[in-house]
Write a structure and sequence with these properties.
The chain is mostly helical. It is built from seven helices and no strands. The longest helix is centred in the middle third of the chain and has 51 residues. It is rod-shaped, with a radius of gyration of 31 Å.
Length: about 210
């Protein structure tokens, strides 16, 4: 019995060594994988969760020691599954954050492009279409970032106000009288703090004409 117990203890010790070595190896390999994964930004981070799942599937097959006792095998699998779930959850959150950032950046860039295009050719039709497009892009940002109604309204006021200011900046030189009429028609969508500066430029433009 004593000899059997010695053999049993030795097997348990060997299993413990195998367990610790395998766990350490798995953690080190995953740490290296995660470090590279978190370097992915924007659209490059899309499908990161799927890539992590594939990595874990392969890693657990490659890093699967053979234990002498069933108990050691169960403990190792339990620990490995815990690491897998935790890491995939973390990288999934990271991927979603990058998707949000990409969507917001794309919508913001679209707003700038629309504003510039309208200011370069400010017809009644282009202004109306541009304003509608800007509000649509703001809605994408608001939905993506989870903005409330007040925050959405503030962002619309900011972006639409910028559109009007850029249109006015061009018109005040090319057609001051139209600029004055445009300002009066759209003044309510421009921030009050900008009134004085715009009105000074309009006065100078009209005087020059």
């Amino acid at each position: 019995a004593t000899v059997d117990r010695v053999v049993e203890l030795r097997k348990e010790q060997e299993d413990t060594d195998k367990y610790l070595l395998a766990e350490t190896s798995l953690k080190e390999k995953y740490t290296a994988f995660e470090a590279e994964a978190r370097k992915r930004r924007g659209v490059n981070a899309w499908d990161l969760t799927k890539d992590a799942e594939k990595w874990w599937d392969a890693a657990l097959k490659e890093n699967a020691p053979t234990f002498s006792t069933q108990r050691a095998g169960v403990l190792y699998q339990r620990a490995a599954r815990g690491m897998r779930l935790q890491s995939i959850s973390s990288l999934s959150q990271y991927e979603e954050g990058q998707r949000v950032a990409t969507r917001v950046d794309a919508a913001s860039a679209s707003i700038v492009a629309t504003t510039n295009a309208v200011a370069a050719n400010p017809t009644d039709e282009s202004i109306k279409k541009g304003r509608d497009e800007i509000i649509q892009r703001v809605d994408i940002i608001a939905m993506t970032k989870g903005l409330d109604g007040y925050q959405r309204a503030d962002l619309i006021a900011e972006k639409v106000g910028m559109l009007h200011k850029q249109v006015l900046a061009g018109l005040v030189n090319s057609d001051p009288l139209r600029a004055k009429n445009y300002y009066e028609s759209n003044k309510k969508e421009i921030e009050g703090k900008d009134y004085a500066g715009i009105e000074d430029k309009l006065a100078i433009g009209v005087t020059k004409r």
